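DM from R.C. (forwarded with permission)

"hey, sorry to bug you on a friday — could you get me a structure for this? deadline for the figure draft is monday and I only need the backbone to look sensible"
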Amino acid sequence: MRLSLEMVTVPVADVDRAKAFYVDQVGFHADIDVRTDGDRRFVRLTPPGSVCCVAIGEGWIDSAPGSLQGTQLVVEDVDEARAFLVARGVEVTGVQRYPWGRFCFFSDPDGNGWSVQEPPAAA
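My reply, with the result:
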């Protein structure tokens, strides 16, 4: 059996503001932005090089905006990733070292927390 995580729902208060942040600042690709029955809106965004996407929207997410914490992006070079985010106006922490890798952290406009990890070199 294969289980593949392919979408994470990110609760936001303002879909347009969140979409602009993830696309224009963090560099995600905007895959889908559709309105469905009633007041529902579904927006799918994918980080470059990822098979897992994030979804934001209106009318179908019950979680409080900003309640998602600890979602992780994995990169080859955390210094390069941090510089990319800083250059695009994202408030991001300095690089921190742990036994399980090097990290920096940022939040979206609603307070959803993200980590960016450079895994340790293989032994």
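R.C.: lifesaver. The longest helix spans residues 15-25.
me: no worries. The first strand starts at residue 7 and ends at 9.
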